[in-house]
Amino acid sequence: MTPNPQPSDTQLPTPSDHGIYIAISEQNHRTQMEETLILDGFNISAFPSASALWDVFQARPTRMVITERSFPSSGLTGLDLCRNIRKRFTLPYIYVVVFSSMNRMQEIKDGLAAGVDDYLAKPLTPVQARARVLVGRRWLAYIDSLFAGRK
Fold this sequence. Notes:
Blueprint: E1 19-23, H1 27-39, E2 43-47, H2 50-59, E3 64-68, H3 78-88, E4 95-100, H4 105-114, E5 118-121, H5 126-148
Parallel strand pairs: 1-2, 1-3, 3-4, 4-5
């Protein structure tokens, strides 16, 4: 792995490292998502809130994040988390998926404006989760190949 420097001097893994951070408030949904992706060979770190994920992400970023849009407790929302990632980590690219039942057009527009790359609709289905992650990994590999060609 050839790390690329970040403004914070934090090193990010490549998409092939399979690391995914997940922030889902409900334990049963978090466990279901985690188990689904672990079975596919991904290294998963799961958190009960966007704030908890952000605390770890700042010190140990990864290339893919799946977060709920909103959390019952106070603190960061999934969209706040995405905005924080976009402000602080520009390259290499971080792929962000929002897991939500909010799927009206305005809610999707708000998510896209915050920097969300993709949506995963509730209720969770393993096929949907795998598909969204595989699309994200392909996108990250493509972006990395574009930057590799510039070296």
